[in-house]
From TrEMBL:
Cited InterPro entries: Cyt_P450, Cyt_P450_B, Cyt_P450_CS, Cyt_P450_sf
Record key words, sorted: Heme, Iron, Metal-binding, Monooxygenase, Oxidoreductase
Protein source organism: Microlunatus kandeliicorticis
Classification via PROSITE patterns: CYTOCHROME_P450
Family statement drawn from the similarity comment of this UniProt entry: Belongs to the cytochrome P450 family.
Pfam families for the chain: p450
Signal is among the record's keywords: no
Protein name from the UniProt record: Cytochrome P450
Domain of life: Bacteria
Keyword Transcription attached: no
Alphabetized GO MF terms: heme binding; iron ion binding; monooxygenase activity; oxidoreductase activity, acting on paired donors, with incorporation or reduction of molecular oxygen
Length: 399
């Protein structure tokens, strides 16, 4: 059983630890699955033989436990996603390096730029025929923002976006040999772009993360740590916020009375973002490896156990959220959802994701009160990241 768990750290490569991927597309509603896991107890054995939990308290404790590690086992390859897969002290050092880019000061300076970038995208939308919300709004906006934050010049932005998307497509599993080959190519090409960018920023420093990396000494970040760090930020920036925006608009349009609440008061956009993170989390789960014996939720974990942590299931735990399957932007439940994880790996980009999605939803409601679905949507493959691949909508007034 442990062999099956091996590998799939953060679900990035290899098999799906919960066997969720085996669900056919028509069944792709994972929430009944989490209910079944929770019904078996706070901690239970998954179909693939690893431990799993969808219980809010257990998930929260596992994420905060010092007896749990995010690093792949000794001698095994992870997904090369920098400090996401490290333990202290390396985790602390690299996280500290990344943090200033997401500080309130830095983000407040980005607010106007994000709004302007979004308005440019919205200006280009057709007002009299359907369009795809994902490729026209949800995806390009976070790509522009993360490129800006890292300091990628406009000339490189397209290549950067293309390789970044190829990389992101592997979240949740590599589908074929050809897919694996494309990944290796993307990794090599990205490495080359990063090298050129470091040289450029040494000559022409800017107010961005790549400049800080180029100027930092090896005691802050070693040369071999730079590409994985930038790749992590790239993937995290590309592949998550797009789904938050898509999942939010879908939930709102499936619950028209909630959309009307937002249209009547666009300042509710922040509440929509929080409720979407709870109700339909873009990152559905993570994983931890037990490094020393610990008892959580009445279960005795031993070293080398692997725990699949279903944050999206915990966010639907009825003991914390009454009527958890109800999408309700007026909720006032005191407990914060676990969509951004918890403990030392709590999402570094959470303030940025919140800012981008809030601006997007507020502006959509202000500019397009008639927004509605205009056809069948498609979902992205895989069960780690939950989001839409295409989402046809129209903004034309109803006649
Ligand atoms: C970590 C979710 C957006 C950067 C995480 C983790 C989750 C998460 C669940 C922790 C995984 C674990 O504990 O094993 C999300 C969601 C997002 C989002 C749902 C959007 C809706 C972003 C953005 C960025 C970002 C926009 C930055 C560009 C990171 C980084 C980590 C992380 C660097 C690693 C933190 C650490 O290990 O200390 N994110 N994320 N995320 N996220 Fe996000």
């Amino acid at each position: 059983y442990r062999d099956k768990a091996r590998f799939n750290f953060h679900g990035y490569v290899g098999r799906d630890p919960l066997c969720l991927a085996n669900l056919t597309p028509g069944q792709r509603d994972p929430y009944p699955f989490y209910e079944r896991i929770r019904a078996r107890g706070p901690v239970s054995r998954s179909a693939a033989g690893v431990w799993a939990s969808a219980d809010y308290d257990v998930v929260r404790q596992v994420l905060r436990s010092r007896a749990m590690s995010s690093a792949p086992p000794e001698g095994q390859q992870g997904a090369d996603l920098s400090f996401l897969e490290m333990d202290p002290p390396d985790h602390t050092r690299l996280r500290r390096f990344a943090l200033p880019s997401f500080s309130p000061r830095n983000l407040s300076s980005m607010d106007a730029r994000i709004t302007a970038a979004l308005n440019r995208l919205l200006d280009d939308l057709p007002t009299d025929e359907p369009f795809d919300l994902v490729s026209r709004v949800g995806a390009p906006m976070p790509i522009t923002v993360i490129s800006d934050l890292l300091g990628v010049p406009d000339a490189d932005a397209d290549a950067f976006a293309r390789y970044g998307s190829t990389f992101g497509s592997a979240l949740g599993g590599v589908r074929s040999l050809a897919h694996a080959r494309r990944l290796v190519e993307a990794r090599t090409a990205l490495g080359r772009i990063f090298e050129q960018l470091f040289e450029l920023k040494r000559r022409e420093p800017g107010d961005d993360l790549i400049t800080r990396a180029a100027e930092a000494g090896p005691e802050v970040i070693r040369p071999d740590e730079m590409a994985p760090l930038l790749t992590l930020l790239l993937i995290a920036g590309f592949e998550t916020t797009v789904n938050l925006i898509g999942n939010a608009v879908l939930a709102l349009l499936e619950h028209p009375e909630q959309w009307e609440l937002l249209v009547a008061d666009p300042d509710r956009a922040g509440a929509v973002v929080e409720e979407t993170l709870r109700y339909d989390s873009p990152v559905q789960r993570t994983g931890r490896r037990v490094v020393e014996p610990v008892t959580i939720g009445g279960h005795d974990f031993v070293a080398d156990d692997f725990v699949v942590v279903c944050v999206a299931g915990a966010n639907r735990d009825p003991s914390v959220y009454p009527e958890p399957a109800r999408f309700d932007i007026t909720r006032t439940d005191p407990q914060e959802h676990l969509a951004f994880s918890g403990g030392i790996h709590y999402c570094v980009g959470a303030p940025l994701a919140r800012l981008e999605a809030t601006i997007a939803l507020r502006t959509l409601a202000q500019r397009f009160p008639h927004l509605r679905r205009a056809g069948a949507l498609t979902r992205r493959p895989g069960s780690l990241i939950r989001g839409l691949q295409s989402f046809p909508v129209t903004v034309a007034p109803v006649v």
